[in-house]
Amino acid sequence: MVFSVFLKGLAMGAANVIPGVSGGTIALITGIYERLINAIKSFDLRAAKLLLSKQWQAFWTSTDSTFLLALFAGIGVSIVSLAKLLEYLLESRETLTMAFFFGLILVSIYFVGKTVRQWTPTVCIMLLIGIIIAAGIAFLAPASENSSFFYVFLCGIVAMCSMILPGLSGSFVLIIMGNYALILAAIGNADLNILIPLALGCIFGMIAFSHLLAWIFKHFHDQTIAMMTGFIAGSLLVIWPWKNTITEMIAREDKPAKEVVTGYEWYLPAVTDSNTLLAAGIAAAGGFALFAMEKLAAKTS
């Protein structure tokens, strides 16, 4: 069980380097999303009291810390190992790499969507809203940079929420909000004037949003799953393998300039081209890989 959670953490960590894929998407696909939200939510006043009163076992159990430790260990290992491989593949074989994830995410829409218990008109509307929001983000023009305390705090909240939500890329959202370069420079220079409000926003966003999501899941399960399915479907626009990436060089103090993605230009490939056929085959392999994992998980259960 612990090793299985560790493997899912590996997948979540690797997803962070794929444009348009969030760790939340992988958590939802692999069936640990609600447990993750509830585990984060459990770090409340009750947990603090248990910790302060040195009730270590009760604290560990109430916060589902074994699960979180295994998951974040997998994420950490992935970021320093598998992510490097994916970064190389994105640089040298971007279309084929994106094709694999496109197929995987495309098939995941079915497996996530089928967990909806009853497809009512309201649930269908929430699916459509999710698609529109996720797809619409890809067309937004980046805002101007803003270093005010409140706005950076808000960036922290939004970035953390988008990382938790399936189908929304936290780094891409920061680019849209205009503060990606500012935060990147602040991390490199240890600028506490930026990092403190950002960290406060991330912590507040993670705790508050996990409580909100847990409540929504409990009271509006089908509507929530439908909207998240829409988020995943809408993110296919960013994962589409055949596109030209619009980039901008961001200057960084005492460091080389960094190229960041600010938008995309999509196009349809030549159907008879050998590279197109290869990419389509790899996309099918991605979809089959997820299908096989789902069947294996069901058999194990």
Descriptors for this entry?
mainly alpha; two-stranded antiparallel sheet; 15 helices; 2 strands; globular
Your description of this structure?
The chain is mostly helical. The chain has one domain. It is built from 15 helices and two strands. 72% of the residues lie in helices and 7% in strands. It has helices spanning 2-15, 23-29, 33-41, 45-52, 56-62, 65-80, 82-92, 94-113, 121-137, 149-164, 170-176, 180-189, 192-219, 221-239, 274-300; strands at 243-252, 255-266. Helix 7 (82-92) crosses helix 8. The longest helix has 28 residues, at 192-219. The chain is globular. The protein has a two-stranded antiparallel sheet with strand order 1-2.
Tell me the major beta sheet: 2 strands, antiparallel
Termini distance?
11 Å
Q: If strands are numbered along the chain, what order do they take across the biggest sheet?
A: 1-2
How many domains? The number is 1
Q: Summarize the helix and strand pattern as letters.
A: HHHHHHHHHHHHHHEEH
**Low-pLDDT segments, ≥5 res:** none
Work out the radius of gyration.
20 Å
**Mean pLDDT score, rounded?**
82
Number of helices: 15
Q: In terms of structural class, how would the helical and strand content be classed?
A: mainly alpha
Put the structure in a nutshell.
The chain has 301 residues and is mainly alpha-helical. It has 15 helices and two strands. It has one domain.
What layout of secondary structure does this protein have?
Elements: H1 2-15, H2 23-29, H3 33-41, H4 45-52, H5 56-62, H6 65-80, H7 82-92, H8 94-113, H9 121-137, H10 149-164, H11 170-176, H12 180-189, H13 192-219, H14 221-239, E1 243-252, E2 255-266, H15 274-300
Helix pairs in contact: 1-2, 1-6, 3-13, 4-5, 7-8, 8-14, 8-15, 9-14, 10-11, 10-13, 12-13, 13-14
